[in-house]
Amino acid sequence: MTDLKIIGNRNSQQQPDIKLLRLLVDKKMATDAGLENLVDQIISVITNDGRNIVGVLKGFDQATNIILDESHERVYSTKEGVQQLVLGLYIIRGDNISIVGELDEELDASLDLSALRAHPLKPVIH
Amino acid sequence: MSGRKETVLDLAKFVDKGVQVKLTGGRQVSGILKGYDQLLNLVLDKAIEFLRDPDDPLKTTDQTRHLGLIVCRGTAVMLVSPTDGTDEIENPFVQPDGA
Amino acid sequence: MLPLSLLKTAQGHPMLVELKNGETYNGHLVNCDTWMNIHLREVICTSKDGDRFWRMPECYIRGNTIKYLRVPDEVIDKVQEDTKSRSDRKPPGVGRGRGRGREDTSSKAKGIGRGMEDGGGRGGGRGRGGVSGGRAGGSRGGGRG
């Protein structure tokens, strides 16, 4: 909102610069609806090669490269329960990310992963 | 930009030396580096390509073919390493613990 | 924290890099740039299936072929120190939000560039004394394959 007021003042006699306005709105959306509010929270990432990695989001950039701390991979299989592989500190390249999701810690804690069977995800086909 | 310090690797030290180049798409060539530019276009002399397993194009075999003098397009260059000191070795990692 | 700041801070540290083609490279980070191009030393390359291994004295990897990088846990703490000392030195908002409209992106890029340079000298020094023996990096490739 403050951003928009500034624009209004600057161009008070004229039409606001629509392009500039749109740029600001876009920028605001990028931060408000983006990953900013997930920082330091546990997130779940699905990569293009079908892996599911869970960890604490420590940072990201415009290319959606992300930093995951204390991360682990969840390996799904139909034969046995979900295996968790400890990965540690990871930088995942944005190119390779399909989905970033917030993880409901309470719900997640209530899951019995060892009893969970699922098909592994297939990689993305480009 | 600050000082145009954009080349992470100084290719000058590889000129007239053997280099191995992996290209996007899976081709792998090696040759003597004769020249390069900042876009990572490379000129390789006496280049050979390592042919790939027809059943699995991600695997290279020991079969080669001679290409001679070639230019590798920078945009396709994935990886550059010196041939000198590059060898296939036994598994150097301690046995991965099952978990 | 920006992923590339973390990467820059990891200079001199061992790391594991997986490429989009599934090959993994274990080595010490010598240098990196804003494209995530990286230069590694004392490298062990593992094939996609984890069944063949090569050692190479050094290698250059183009950033856009990287899938992910695994860096030692302690590196993240070092970044925080760096960013703190940096914001002490400069007025807040140098990197972000200065300039207007389009110019914003370029000023941001400049901010990054300078930050990297800062880390450069220090990173090298730290590296030499740094942590040795990366975690069992190969287990990743082997475990999956």
TrEMBL record, chain A:
The keyword Ribonucleoprotein applies. GO terms for molecular function: mRNA binding. Keywords: mRNA processing, mRNA splicing, Nucleus, Ribonucleoprotein, RNA-binding, Spliceosome. The keyword Ribonucleoprotein applies. One of its GO terms (cellular component) is precatalytic spliceosome. GO terms for biological process: mRNA splicing, via spliceosome. It is found in: Nucleus. Residues 30-106 form the Sm domain. PROSITE patterns: SM. InterPro entries: Lsm8, LSM_dom_sf, PTHR15588, Sm, Sm_dom_euk/arc. Gene3D superfamilies: 2.30.30.100. Pfam families: LSM (PF01423). PANTHER family: LSM1 (PTHR15588), U6 SNRNA-ASSOCIATED SM-LIKE PROTEIN LSM8 (PTHR15588:SF9). Belongs to the snRNP Sm proteins family. LSm subunits form a heteromer with a doughnut shape. Plays role in pre-mRNA splicing as component of the U4/U6-U5 tri-snRNP complex that is involved in spliceosome assembly, and as component of the precatalytic spliceosome (spliceosome B complex). The heptameric LSM2-8 complex binds specifically to the 3'-terminal U-tract of U6 snRNA. This is U6 snRNA-associated Sm-like protein LSm8. It comes from Erythranthe guttata (Yellow monkey flower). The gene is LSM8.
TrEMBL record, chain B:
GO terms for biological process: mRNA splicing, via spliceosome; nuclear-transcribed mRNA catabolic process. The keyword Ribonucleoprotein applies. Keywords: Ribonucleoprotein. This is Sm domain-containing protein. InterPro entries: Lsm7, Lsm7/SmG-like, LSM_dom_sf, Sm, Sm_dom_euk/arc. Belongs to the snRNP Sm proteins family. It comes from the Eukaryota. One of its GO terms (cellular component) is spliceosomal tri-snRNP complex. GO terms for molecular function: RNA binding. PANTHER family: SM-LIKE PROTEIN LSM7, SMALL NUCLEAR RIBONUCLEOPROTEIN. It comes from Erythranthe guttata. Residues 6-86 form the Sm domain.
From TrEMBL, chain C:
It is found in: Nucleus. The gene is LSM4. GO terms for molecular function: U6 snRNA binding. GO terms for cellular component: Lsm2-8 complex; P-body; spliceosomal complex; spliceosomal tri-snRNP complex; U6 snRNP. Coiled coil: none annotated. It comes from the Eukaryota. Gene3D superfamilies: 2.30.30.100. This is U6 snRNA-associated Sm-like protein LSm4. The keyword Ribosomal protein does not apply. InterPro entries: Lsm4, LSm4/Sm_D1/D3, LSM_dom_sf, Sm, Sm_dom_euk/arc. The lineage of its organism: Eukaryota, Viridiplantae, Streptophyta, Embryophyta, Tracheophyta. Residues 121-145 have a biased composition (Gly residues). SUPFAM superfamilies: Sm-like ribonucleoproteins. Belongs to the snRNP Sm proteins family. Residues 2-75 form the Sm domain. LSm subunits form a heteromer with a doughnut shape. It comes from Erythranthe guttata. Residues 79-91 have a biased composition (Basic and acidic residues).
